[in-house]
Amino acid sequence: MANGFAAADKSKPFITNNSLAKDRGYKDGLPTATCLCGGVQLAFPVEGPGLINTFVCNCADCRKLTASMFASNFAIDDKYLVHVRGRDNLKSWYNPVTPVRHEGSMTDYFCSTCGTLMYRISSAFPNVPILRIGSVDDLSLHETKLKPQWEQFTKDRALLPFSSGAFFENNVDALRELEIPVARSLHALKPFGKRRSDKLITARSDNRGTSPTRTILDGTDYAIDITLGGKTYAVLFDTASSAFWMPGANFTCVDTNNTAQPDSACGFASNGPEEFTGGRIADQNFQVTYISGEFATGAAGREDVTFAGVTVKNQHIGLADRAYFDSQNGFTSGIMGWGLGNYTTFYPGDDPKLNNKTDPNHTWIPTNTWILNAVEQGLLEKPMFSINIGNRTENAANLSASGFVAVGGAPLEGLPFTGVWAHSSITPETYAPWGLKNKYTHWNVRPDGFLVDQTFVPWNPGNFADGGNEIFTVLDTGSTWSYITNETIQVIAKAMQPPATWSIPDTAYVAMCNATVPKVSIRINGTDLPIAKRELLLDGWLGQANNSTTLCWLGWQPAYQPPRGGAAPYILGDTFFRNVLTVHDVGNLEMSFASLKWN
């Protein structure tokens, strides 16, 4: 074995003498995998579409076969695998029942002379040979293009994790290994076929365990049904805030000048209760202000609130007695936040004019959101909830069903899973204008970067101007678009053909609706999650830029800047959520993302 590989330049081939073959390394430009005696040699691509994935497997089958604790593998589309020589020298051994799955089969192909395992083929994927990374002659590829991106059978792992991602052949394996309970049932998302142009960012069922969300305005917002005081209301579903409020029965609707208007001007579907059934909370007020300029003020109190058949007792909630709101469109009656409770809309005292996020005597009061109370009150099978807001393809046309929120687990089937999962821990946030200092506040993630075709754009978020801390990235179902670094969106815009352009009047990128869109993935903790092209360049009602039939909005835009200056957090909004099943682990403050591929 040659010495010095650890310090070698991995951008150059590094061929060792670990085979008797003299021609090992590359054949007609393709890297090779050669057996020990040199009698069998394979050639293969190290990029898509021929290269499907690279992964570490901890299953008992791979342990037995390798006489080790794991196997490092890569999967190739059979059409791209070249048998350079020795195909007749391969011997196969058929295992009708693998010890892992107790179903299906696996056929192993060995060199009949030296016994080197060259590849395996599963009956579940008969056109996908699985090769061992260790058999590849160029060792530089082991740590570059063939470096494992996922890990499977992680519960059986004997060593520390190799990757934050995982690849699973089916969702049964995924949920079992990730210890995610199967949701009891799923309720359909009910879309509303009305149109809205929206670029706002907030600062923000009968079957137990799951509940419908409802698309508002062709994928611009999502609503869930809750019950309190014996009445059911639709409220905006918002993962990026801890605000829970409704318009009171006798609230006053106002305009931007705080002048009273008809209730219909605020667009709520209906008003909430006149009073709290659990009573008002003394010496406390409710106030929320959004970057859009919308606001609501009122009283704080307690209600028993039922969602998805789960009833939380004494939930903290605000009833607005005064509100300026122009984005409800007659579909919802307030907002229900599913954040982590450390940045709320409740303040001490009865006078909202004294509220001040940066004044310790008048700052917000930490309170549990509905999901935190459901966990604290022991109402869930496991402290988590999962989301998919559905495929927008069919919604506007026929009001078809799609999308859900499931509490206590995740769905076993019904979504187009690719088998790829990414995982990330939630991090505490510091942001002086919100009075945050090292608090777990939002469901957040720090991307590694974005892969645009073959160009990787590292994530360089920068720092908040006032506090010096890194700008964080929030997952927000209440945001129609996603807002990322300007550096990233410029690369995406230029990769379109013709390129997308910046519209100064709209402060947003637009492109020809028939533009060619690049392949884009967001990389989270080492795992790439592809973004559907129709979420990059929006189509249908949602995509039309200022009612144009030829220009469409990009679904990913530069980070929104508040009108008063400064910097806002980055946002992964609905154009991100539609590409994944998102599992929010409340107990461990972690998130998991299952990649989806809609037809």
Please write out the topology.
Layout: E1 26-27, E2 30-34, E3 41-43, E4 51-57, H1 60-66, E5 71-76, E6 82-85, E7 90-95, E8 106-111, E9 117-122, E10 125-132, H2 139-142, E11 150-152, E12 166-167, H3 171-177, E13 210-211, E14 213-216, E15 221-228, E16 231-238, E17 244-254, E18 260-261, E19 280-289, E20 295-307, E21 310-324, E22 335-337, E23 346-348, H4 370-376, E24 384-388, H5 395-398, E25 404-407, E26 417-425, E27 429-431, E28 436-439, E29 449-452, E30 455-458, E31 473-475, E32 482-484, H6 486-495, E33 501-503, E34 508-512, E35 520-524, E36 527-531, H7 533-536, H8 540-543, E37 551-553, E38 556-558, E39 570-572, H9 574-577, E40 580-585, E41 590-596
Parallel strand pairs: 4-11, 16-22, 17-21, 31-39, 32-38
Antiparallel strand pairs: 1-2, 2-3, 3-6, 4-5, 5-10, 7-8, 8-9, 9-10, 12-26, 13-25, 14-15, 15-16, 17-18, 17-22, 19-20, 19-23, 20-21, 24-25, 24-40, 26-41, 27-28, 29-30, 29-35, 33-34, 34-37, 35-36, 40-41
Organism: Curvularia clavata
Keywords: Metal-binding, Zinc
Pfam family, one: GFA
